[in-house]
Amino acid sequence: MNQKIKNIFVTGAISPTFIGEKIAAHQSKTAIGGHSIFLGQVRADTRANKKVVAIEYTSYEQMALEQMAAIREKMIEKYSLTCMHVYHALGKINTGEICLFVFTSAPHRKAAIEACSETVEQLKADLPIWGQEIFEDDSFQWKINQPA
Amino acid sequence: MLKQMAGAPAIMTDVTDTDGLIKEMAVRFPGLKNLTCLVAVDRLVVGSNTPIREGQEIALLPPYSGG
Protein backbone atom coordinates (compact mmCIF):
# COMPACT_ATOMS: atom_id res chain seq x y z
CA MET A 1 0.00 0.00 0.00
CA ASN A 2 1.69 3.17 -1.20
CA GLN A 3 -0.63 5.81 0.15
CA LYS A 4 -0.18 7.13 3.63
CA ILE A 5 -2.98 6.18 5.98
CA LYS A 6 -5.39 9.06 6.52
CA ASN A 7 -7.43 9.49 9.64
CA ILE A 8 -11.16 9.37 8.89
CA PHE A 9 -12.45 9.69 12.44
CA VAL A 10 -13.88 12.82 14.00
CA THR A 11 -15.15 13.08 17.55
CA GLY A 12 -18.79 14.07 17.69
CA ALA A 13 -21.20 14.85 14.86
CA ILE A 14 -19.97 16.08 11.47
CA SER A 15 -21.17 19.68 11.19
CA PRO A 16 -22.73 21.26 8.08
CA THR A 17 -20.03 23.95 8.37
CA PHE A 18 -17.28 21.33 8.14
CA ILE A 19 -18.95 19.84 5.06
CA GLY A 20 -19.27 23.28 3.46
CA GLU A 21 -15.62 24.04 4.13
CA LYS A 22 -14.55 20.77 2.50
CA ILE A 23 -16.57 21.61 -0.62
CA ALA A 24 -15.08 25.12 -0.74
CA ALA A 25 -11.56 23.69 -0.46
CA HIS A 26 -12.02 22.10 -3.90
CA GLN A 27 -12.60 25.32 -5.84
CA SER A 28 -8.91 25.47 -6.72
CA LYS A 29 -8.95 21.92 -8.16
CA THR A 30 -10.24 22.88 -11.57
CA ALA A 31 -9.77 19.46 -13.22
CA ILE A 32 -12.85 18.37 -11.25
CA GLY A 33 -16.15 18.40 -13.14
CA GLY A 34 -18.33 16.61 -10.61
CA HIS A 35 -18.53 15.87 -6.90
CA SER A 36 -20.70 13.24 -5.28
CA ILE A 37 -21.51 13.38 -1.58
CA PHE A 38 -23.16 10.88 0.73
CA LEU A 39 -24.20 11.97 4.21
CA GLY A 40 -25.27 9.41 6.77
CA GLN A 41 -27.70 10.76 9.38
CA VAL A 42 -28.68 9.13 12.67
CA ARG A 43 -32.26 7.95 12.30
CA ALA A 44 -34.83 7.96 15.12
CA ASP A 45 -35.88 4.32 14.81
CA THR A 46 -38.43 2.87 17.21
CA ARG A 47 -37.74 -0.55 18.72
CA ALA A 48 -40.22 -2.20 21.07
CA ASN A 49 -41.97 1.16 21.54
CA LYS A 50 -38.75 2.89 22.51
CA LYS A 51 -37.35 5.69 20.40
CA VAL A 52 -33.66 5.91 19.48
CA VAL A 53 -32.29 9.29 20.59
CA ALA A 54 -28.62 8.81 19.71
CA ILE A 55 -26.04 6.31 18.47
CA GLU A 56 -22.72 5.91 20.24
CA TYR A 57 -20.06 4.90 17.71
CA THR A 58 -16.86 3.06 18.59
CA SER A 59 -14.23 1.50 16.36
CA TYR A 60 -11.18 -0.73 16.25
CA GLU A 61 -9.54 2.36 14.83
CA GLN A 62 -6.20 1.18 13.51
CA MET A 63 -7.78 -1.70 11.61
CA ALA A 64 -10.55 0.56 10.29
CA LEU A 65 -8.01 3.07 8.99
CA GLU A 66 -5.99 0.34 7.27
CA GLN A 67 -9.15 -1.10 5.68
CA MET A 68 -10.25 2.37 4.57
CA ALA A 69 -6.84 3.05 3.01
CA ALA A 70 -7.25 -0.13 0.94
CA ILE A 71 -10.76 0.90 -0.18
CA ARG A 72 -9.52 4.40 -1.03
CA GLU A 73 -6.66 3.08 -3.14
CA LYS A 74 -9.01 0.72 -5.01
CA MET A 75 -11.65 3.41 -5.68
CA ILE A 76 -9.18 6.07 -6.83
CA GLU A 77 -7.69 3.62 -9.30
CA LYS A 78 -10.98 2.07 -10.50
CA TYR A 79 -12.77 5.38 -11.09
CA SER A 80 -9.75 7.64 -11.81
CA LEU A 81 -10.88 9.98 -9.05
CA THR A 82 -9.29 13.37 -8.64
CA CYS A 83 -9.76 13.01 -4.91
CA MET A 84 -11.79 11.33 -2.23
CA HIS A 85 -12.52 12.14 1.41
CA VAL A 86 -14.24 10.05 4.06
CA TYR A 87 -15.16 11.11 7.60
CA HIS A 88 -16.88 8.96 10.21
CA ALA A 89 -18.07 10.26 13.56
CA LEU A 90 -17.16 8.56 16.83
CA GLY A 91 -18.83 9.07 20.19
CA LYS A 92 -22.46 9.92 20.89
CA ILE A 93 -24.28 11.30 17.84
CA ASN A 94 -27.86 12.50 18.32
CA THR A 95 -30.67 11.68 15.91
CA GLY A 96 -30.70 14.11 13.00
CA GLU A 97 -26.96 14.67 13.18
CA ILE A 98 -24.48 13.58 10.51
CA CYS A 99 -22.33 10.53 11.30
CA LEU A 100 -20.80 9.77 7.87
CA PHE A 101 -19.51 12.03 5.09
CA VAL A 102 -18.22 10.49 1.86
CA PHE A 103 -17.02 12.92 -0.80
CA THR A 104 -15.71 11.79 -4.21
CA SER A 105 -14.56 14.06 -7.02
CA ALA A 106 -13.75 13.29 -10.64
CA PRO A 107 -13.53 15.05 -14.02
CA HIS A 108 -17.00 13.66 -14.90
CA ARG A 109 -20.14 12.93 -12.89
CA LYS A 110 -20.60 9.21 -13.50
CA ALA A 111 -17.27 8.22 -11.96
CA ALA A 112 -17.85 10.47 -8.96
CA ILE A 113 -21.37 9.11 -8.32
CA GLU A 114 -20.49 5.43 -8.76
CA ALA A 115 -17.35 5.72 -6.64
CA CYS A 116 -19.29 7.41 -3.87
CA SER A 117 -21.96 4.73 -3.84
CA GLU A 118 -19.47 1.85 -3.95
CA THR A 119 -17.34 3.41 -1.22
CA VAL A 120 -20.33 3.69 1.12
CA GLU A 121 -21.21 0.02 0.59
CA GLN A 122 -17.61 -1.11 1.02
CA LEU A 123 -16.96 0.83 4.17
CA LYS A 124 -20.16 -0.41 5.78
CA ALA A 125 -19.06 -3.97 4.98
CA ASP A 126 -15.36 -3.73 5.82
CA LEU A 127 -14.75 -1.18 8.58
CA PRO A 128 -14.79 -2.41 12.18
CA ILE A 129 -17.12 0.28 13.52
CA TRP A 130 -20.00 -0.38 15.89
CA GLY A 131 -23.04 1.69 16.76
CA GLN A 132 -24.88 1.35 20.03
CA GLU A 133 -28.42 2.68 19.82
CA ILE A 134 -29.35 4.73 22.88
CA PHE A 135 -33.04 5.04 23.77
CA GLU A 136 -35.07 7.74 25.54
CA ASP A 137 -34.84 5.88 28.85
CA ASP A 138 -31.00 5.55 28.61
CA SER A 139 -31.22 1.84 27.81
CA PHE A 140 -29.29 0.68 24.75
CA GLN A 141 -28.83 -2.05 22.17
CA TRP A 142 -26.22 -2.74 19.48
CA LYS A 143 -27.23 -1.58 16.03
CA ILE A 144 -27.61 -4.05 13.15
CA ASN A 145 -26.95 -2.64 9.68
CA GLN A 146 -29.58 -3.06 6.98
CA PRO A 147 -28.49 -4.57 3.64
CA ALA A 148 -29.14 -1.25 1.83
CA MET B 1 -19.69 -4.77 22.87
CA LEU B 2 -17.11 -7.40 23.83
CA LYS B 3 -15.42 -4.98 26.21
CA GLN B 4 -18.71 -4.71 28.06
CA MET B 5 -19.14 -8.48 28.07
CA ALA B 6 -15.60 -9.19 29.23
CA GLY B 7 -15.21 -6.19 31.49
CA ALA B 8 -11.81 -5.49 29.91
CA PRO B 9 -10.55 -4.14 26.57
CA ALA B 10 -7.87 -6.83 26.21
CA ILE B 11 -6.91 -10.15 27.75
CA MET B 12 -3.69 -12.14 27.83
CA THR B 13 -3.72 -15.81 26.89
CA ASP B 14 -1.32 -18.58 25.88
CA VAL B 15 -3.33 -20.35 23.16
CA THR B 16 -1.47 -21.16 19.94
CA ASP B 17 -4.12 -20.68 17.28
CA THR B 18 -7.32 -18.74 16.62
CA ASP B 19 -9.63 -21.74 17.12
CA GLY B 20 -8.04 -22.27 20.55
CA LEU B 21 -8.62 -18.63 21.37
CA ILE B 22 -12.30 -18.82 20.39
CA LYS B 23 -12.74 -21.90 22.59
CA GLU B 24 -11.04 -20.24 25.54
CA MET B 25 -13.06 -17.06 25.13
CA ALA B 26 -16.31 -19.06 25.04
CA VAL B 27 -15.39 -20.64 28.39
CA ARG B 28 -14.32 -17.36 29.98
CA PHE B 29 -17.20 -15.33 28.54
CA PRO B 30 -20.24 -17.59 27.99
CA GLY B 31 -22.22 -14.70 26.44
CA LEU B 32 -19.96 -14.93 23.38
CA LYS B 33 -21.57 -18.21 22.31
CA ASN B 34 -24.56 -16.35 20.90
CA LEU B 35 -22.47 -13.96 18.88
CA THR B 36 -20.98 -14.53 15.43
CA CYS B 37 -17.61 -12.81 15.34
CA LEU B 38 -14.94 -12.38 12.69
CA VAL B 39 -11.38 -12.99 13.84
CA ALA B 40 -8.58 -10.59 12.90
CA VAL B 41 -4.87 -11.31 13.37
CA ASP B 42 -2.77 -8.14 13.36
CA ARG B 43 -5.76 -6.27 11.94
CA LEU B 44 -6.43 -8.60 9.01
CA VAL B 45 -9.51 -10.83 9.02
CA VAL B 46 -8.69 -14.56 8.84
CA GLY B 47 -11.22 -17.00 7.37
CA SER B 48 -9.96 -20.22 8.99
CA ASN B 49 -7.88 -21.43 11.93
CA THR B 50 -4.61 -19.50 12.03
CA PRO B 51 -1.51 -20.01 14.20
CA ILE B 52 -0.85 -17.25 16.70
CA ARG B 53 2.65 -16.09 17.61
CA GLU B 54 3.57 -14.28 20.77
CA GLY B 55 2.95 -10.56 20.54
CA GLN B 56 0.34 -10.71 17.79
CA GLU B 57 -2.85 -8.69 18.17
CA ILE B 58 -5.95 -10.84 17.87
CA ALA B 59 -9.40 -9.26 17.73
CA LEU B 60 -12.86 -10.80 17.84
CA LEU B 61 -15.13 -8.56 15.80
CA PRO B 62 -18.93 -8.66 16.19
CA PRO B 63 -21.00 -7.68 13.13
CA TYR B 64 -20.11 -4.17 12.02
CA SER B 65 -22.67 -1.37 12.15
CA GLY B 66 -20.85 1.77 11.07
CA GLY B 67 -22.04 4.45 8.67
Describe the protein's architecture and organization:
The complex is a heterodimer of chains A (148) and B (67). The longest helix of chain A has 19 residues, at 61-79. With 148 residues, chain A is an alpha+beta fold. In chain A, strands 1, 2, 3, 4, 5, 6, 7 and 8 form an eight-stranded mixed beta sheet that branches. Chain A has one domain (9-142): Molybdopterin biosynthesis MoaE subunit (Aldehyde Oxidoreductase, domain 3). Chain A contains three helices and eight strands. Helix content of chain A is 31%, strand content 36%. Chain A is elongated and about 50 Å long. The two termini of chain A are 29 Å apart. In chain A, α2 packs antiparallel against α3. Chain B is α+β, with helices and mostly antiparallel strands and 67 residues long. Chain B has a single domain, classed as Roll (Ubiquitin-like (UB roll)). Helix content of chain B is 24%, strand content 16%. Chain B is built from two helices and three strands. Chain B has a three-stranded antiparallel beta sheet with strand order 2-1-3, with no helix packed on it. In chain B, β1 (38-41) and β2 form a beta hairpin. The chains are: A alpha+beta (148), B alpha+beta (67). The A-B interface holds A 40, 57, 59-60, 62-64, 66, 88, 99-100, 120, 123-132, 142-145 and B 1, 40, 43, 59, 61-67.
